[in-house]
Amino acid sequence: MARAIRLVWGTIQRQANVQGSYAGAIRHYASALRRTGLSGARDHLRRLQSGVGFADRPPPEAVYNEWIARYDTFSETEREKAQEIMAAFTRQPLISVVVPTYNSDPVFLEAMIQSVLNQVYPHWELCIADDASTRPEPAQILRKYMSLDSRIKVVFRDVNGHISEASNSALAIATGQYIALLDHDDVLPAHALFSVARYINKHPDARMFYSDEDKLTADGKRTMPYFKCDWNPQLFLSQNMFSHLGVFEAALVREAGGFRKGFEGSQDYDLTLRCVEIAGHEKVVHIPHVLYHWRIAPGSTASSGSEKPYALVAAIRALEEHLQRIQAEATVEQVFDEPPIMRVRYAVPHPAPKVSIIIPTRDGVDLLRQCIDSIFLRTIYPNYEIIVVDNGSVKEETLSYFAQISEQRNVRILRDDSPFNFSALNNRAAAVATGEYLCLLNNDIEVISPDWLNEMVGVAGQPGHGAVGAALWYPDNTLQHGGVLMGLGGVAGHIHHKMKRGLFGYFGRAVMRQNLSAVTAACLVIRKSIYDEVGGLDEELAVAFNDVDFCLRVGEAGYKNVWTPHAELYHHESATRGSDMAPDKYDRFVKEVRWMEKRWADKLAYDPAYNPNLTLNPQLPLFTLADPPRTHILD
């Protein structure tokens, strides 16, 4: 019996590392035990821990097609229900679908038009601008459909002006209250405009809407679904998450000046940036349904960003001009060729504001020395102090090391012999910190990237930003912390946990800066004024979830938390404190789980950085399909 108990505890502890949550690990292990027995449960969890099955790639077509058949098929039954729902709409706005065309493939062009004709929502117009096609077939097709339905309007341009000018020509004949952008070879599902109209009614103050999307193979099969998060300003600066299906209030598009010549390939990204500047981030709404099928065709960016390298050049230019307009001191870099990902590098103010790095510790001198040495040797940020909070160290080698480093002008040792309480230790140090920014840092952290603190301070200093977290890697170069997701494992867990270095994660999200609900305090930077404003860490949470609770309170105060992959450090996790599953700590851990469930029930049920079509099942890797999804095709 004792051996069996040790096996159970060992398996749960290993799975907790995989998920970042012991509550989820316990449920995960119990479920696997019921299904496969003790040996099978251990084997199953070992496979997940090794990274097998991690959702770095979209689901196989067969898996996705089965999911579509069960949850994303707009049958006659759904069509009838949609008619009932539409009858109760307070607003039934005209939606202008704007399409530029040029020498379009006749088969794809007709499929696009037919997909608009098939819309269950009737209040639309299809505004097409043919950009002086040299082939006769597009004009023939367009004239045929114009004669079949008066809602189809076409302007034939005399001179080829490329996609921006053609889009403006289509926009000029649009009379709707909203503008939906559609490419000439892509298609909309039958419920696309219905869903848009429904969300317009749900969010009458919103001015911009976007949906999830997938791609169409050459033979018309759906593949590679991208289930997006809710509006994420920082993620949008690395990737055009708005397009497909992107819908704008028409007045907003015209106020922004429409499409700009010279941004071909990223003309929609440039337009969205300018519209967000006018409308504000709070006016952008995500529709968590696949409302756009993007055709994979030769020469299309649907197949590869490298098909149109000029598109990335235009995107960088659009982003640079956006940063200039909002007066942000920053530069733009291309991080990867494929996938095409951008990085905004925020400048550190001059002179650099002082950062107080707070490191609680109790003995474990080898880890602490490694941490502090890495700060001194690798950190290029010029202005920081280190506050070591000594929580009752007794070993002579530790005390000797404290005496040694305290001779440094920017190192202080605070003695605190009270029972271990991570929140209280950090709060006491924060109260005496002299920096404009605080950096909460575990003693088992080791710096990798020399500009880690420049990156984190640069991000934390942006208007409206709150807590900033870093990319933390295990020594075996698998990811320990890629940000925190609410609801995972019951309370919270780490995103892309155990992902191997070199992978990009779900549609590149593991290598892009983004807004998240929470980040870990193992390495967290925040303005001291905000820390004080929200009352620091809650001392009722002595060990677990205090950083999650803190970040949620920062969010409630109106600030956006950010995770950045561009600050990288090693995390030798829990090497000194031990496991929360040890019998003497388990009761305290369960109490803190219950505390979080009571305090943040609404946040645990829905995280805007995730998608209800993706799983929260702790037995599956994140970003795999939810079965069933937490939303319905008609929601």
Largest sheet: 10 strands, mixed
Oligomer state equals single chain
CATH architecture of the largest domain: Alpha-Beta Complex
- CATH superfamily annotation of the largest domain: Spore Coat Polysaccharide Biosynthesis Protein SpsA, Chain A
* Mean pLDDT value: 89
For this structure, what is the CATH class of the largest domain?
Alpha Beta
- How does the overall form come out from the CA principal axes? elongated
Integer-rounded radius of gyration: 27 Å
User: Under CATH, the topology of the largest domain is which?
Assistant: Spore Coat Polysaccharide Biosynthesis Protein SpsA, Chain A
**Total tally of structural domains:** 3
Model regions low in confidence, pLDDT < 50 over at least 5 residues: 1-37, 43-55, 302-306
Decide which structural class fits the backbone: alpha/beta
Strand percentage, roughly? Answer: 15-25%
Termini separation (Å)? 50 Å
Helix content: 25-40%
Compute the number of helices: 20
